[in-house]
Amino acid sequence: MIDLHTHSTFSDGTDTPRELINFALSAGITTLALTDHDSIAGWEEAKQSVRGNLSLVLGAEISCLTSDGISVHMLGLLFDGANAKMAQMLSETRDSRIPRMKKMIELLNNEGIDITMEDVLNVVADGATVGRPHLADALVARGFIASRNEAFDGLLNNDSKFYVSHLAPTPEVAIAQIKEAGGVSVIAHPFASFRGATLELDAFEPLVKAGLNGIEVNHRDQTETERLQLLDIAKGMSLVITGSSDYHGAGKLNSLGENSTDPRQWELLEAMADQRRVVKQ
C-alpha cells in the first residue's frame, strides 16, 4: 500500500515522525511519503525510524498562491534536501506564516473571539511550521469550537472573512524549483471544493508546461465527480495519478492508506526524479 501524503508534528500533524513510521508499519503501508508543510525538519527522525519492508519517500507540501490568489498545495517528492534554493523557498514560505497568523487572530478578536498568539504557540510542537490547524486547535482548547473539522468547515475556511493568505511562490515557481532540486511534483487535492476556491480546468496547462509530474486524484476532500474530472485531466495530459490519505494523526479524520497510489503509477513517478532517493532499512 502506497501513501504519498502525510504530516507529522513538524507541521500540523499530531504524530512524531517516529510514531508516523510505527503507525504506517501497523497499517500495512509499504511506501510512505512524509510531506510536512513547507518543512523538511522531520526528515532525519523519519530516516532513523525506517525498518522492515517500509520504503520512505521524503518530501514537503509547499504552500503556493496563483497570480489571482487561489491557494494551491504542491507536493514535492524525492528532491535533494541540501539544495540551497529549495531550502530558501521553504524558509521564506514558513517565515510568512507568523504575520499571517497574527492578522487572522486580529480579525477573530475584532469579532469578539478572544484568542491570542500565545494560545496558538502553546499548541505548536517545537520546530513545527505554524498553520491554520494550530489556530483551530487553540480555538478548540479555548472552547470556541469542538474540533479542527468544525474550524475548517466555518471560521477558517478559505472563503471565510477570517482567512488571510500569506507570501508564497506561484505553483509554477514551486514546480520549477522542485525539478531543479531533482525531485518530482504532484499537485495536492486541486479540486477540494469544500475548502474554498479551486483551480479552473484551464489552469493545468501552464503547470504541465512548468514541469508538473502528477495529480493527487484520490483524496477524501474531492467528490467522485471531481475525481473523475481530475482522472480525465491526468490521462489527457499524461500525468501520474496518485491517491493519498493526507494523514494528520488525531488532528483530522483521515486514516493512513484510506486512499493509495497504484504501484505502477508510483514506479512512473519515482523514475522521473533525477536519482533514486527512497530510504530503506
Automatic annotation (TrEMBL):
InterPro entries per the UniProt record, alphabetical: PHP_dom, PHP_domain, Pol/His_phosphatase_N, Pol/histidinol_Pase-like
Cross-referenced Pfam families: PHP
Domain named Polymerase/histidinol phosphatase N-terminal: residues: 2-66
Gene Ontology MF, one: 5'-3' RNA exonuclease activity
SMART domains: POLIIIAc
Protein's name in the database: Unannotated protein
Species per Swiss-Prot/TrEMBL record: freshwater metagenome
